[in-house]
Amino acid sequence: MNHLFTPPVLWAMLLVTLLCSCGKSEKKTTNTSYSAYDEELEVAGKKKEKKKKKKKGKTFNLPSITLTQKNVEEELKKYGAAHPESVVMIYTRMGNLKLKLYKETPLHRANFIRLTKIKYFDRTQFHRVVKDFMIQGGGGGGLHRIKLKGIIGSYRIPHEIKPNRFFHKRGALATARMYENNPMKRSNPYNFYIVQGTKYNVPTLNNMAQKEKLNFNQAQMQAYTNIGGVPSLDGKHTVFGELLKGFDVLDKIAAVKTKKSEWPAEDIIIDSVRVVE
Asked: In Å, what is the CA distance from 110 to each residue of 54, 81, 82, 105, 123?
């Protein structure tokens, strides 16, 4: 009879052993099944993460040289000689703008091509819009854009103003600039504008020329009376290109509703700017 009954302590030990054995077996089975699947997911996840990081790293083609006021002219001349392209396309949700940059304004052309290839303008905005005047781009972008400017450089471009040759006719591409403490009329390298303007009659142009101490030549008079522009800006900003295609897009952007600050009520993002020729 004693052989048929196991002391309580022995029963407890057998029960613990049995449970541990089952737990080990179940854990082993579960881990083996999970490991194969988990390993596959982990490898796929690492590849995806690596791909994302690689893609993110290529967003900006960061320059090897940071521009300053001391080296800007020399470096832009070098860059312009190595990069002779002169036609760019601006892509937006409202349509595209094709622009030709003048080779006769080499510093401004080189700067715009440089920023385009760095992809600085991608995801910036047309941040100032004034109907019958102009649309200004290159603003916005937040803290990341400020950091990017730090890498590209803090500088102003020496002016290349040639008012009787390149003037503010409809479609003109020019650079914004500070008016205070800027007697040399140096340009802001990051902000540009495209002129929409309005048409003027001859008497108004003559009065404006007298008031602003301007001297409009025949080409300017014809442009401002036939297609329009902003003649009052001549001699004050560098015009370094012109719109080839997308005048309808220019008019659509210029017509949007804006805030008191002249910032569009609904953001107009520049998806990208690319060199096409």
From this structure: 28, 8, 9, 9, 21
The reported pTM is 0.79
Measured CA to CA, the distance from residue 183 to residue 227 in angstroms comes to: 31
The two three-digit tokens of residue 165, written as one number: 């040759």
Q: Torsion angle, CA of 21/24/30/34, rounded to 10 degrees?
A: -160
pLDDT lower than 50: segments of the chain: 1-6, 22-33, 54-58
Residue 227 C-beta-side C-alpha neighbours within 13 Å: 14
**Local structure of residue 2 (DSSP, 8 states):** G
Distance, in Å, from the CA atom of 40 to the CA atom of 205, rounded to the nearest integer, reads 74
Of residues 95, 99, 146, the one with CA closest to residue 120: 146
Q: Facing residues of 187 across strands?
A: 157
**Are the C-beta atoms of residues 187 and 237 closer than 8 Å to each other?**
yes
Kindly report, residue by residue over 223-267, the tens digit of the pLDDT: 999 999 999 999 999 999 999 999 999 999 999 999 999 999 999
Q: Which residues contact 86 (CB under 8 A, 6 or more apart)?
A: 100, 101, 102, 103, 109, 113, 277
CA-CA distance, 66 to 78, in Å (whole number)? 14
Closest among 224, 212, 234 to 162, alpha carbons compared: 234
Environment class of 107 (CB within 10 Å of its CB; exposed 0-12, middle 13-18, buried 19+): buried
Pairing of strands 134-139, 172-175: unpaired
**Residues 205-223 pLDDT 10s:** 999 999 988 999 999 999 9
| 83 vs 159: CA distance, rounded Å | 20
